[in-house]
Amino acid sequence: MHKLSRVGRGTIFVSGMCLSLIGTIQPAALAKYVREAVGEGAGADGFMQRLQLMVWPDLPRAWKLVDHEHDPAIVDQAYDLFVRLEQLTPKACDARQATIKGGTVQAPVSFFQPGSSSLI
User: Dihedral of the CA atoms 67, 73, 78, 83 (nearest 10)?
Assistant: First the structure.
């Protein structure tokens, strides 16, 4: 039984408390966290042991690995795109400093053009 006090709404008791986490983490960061969690230091707080794998995809019975060479022209196009993105400047994107909810955003900000959100 878990006691939950809610500001302005009183206290309730929850018999089966459960929290779902959805997200991602980089493998190196996860490895470091797991090493600390199974050690004997401050990271060994039992939190990692409480996380469980909820869903694991079942491979189809007819699954077959298909590995083949990529089309060199497509690879070149992708590489060129990454180079252009790496060289992209805020000015080229019409990015500018903006004020959002009374505060100035320090990083350049880009906005959708009027009417573009209807395409999403």
Answer: 140
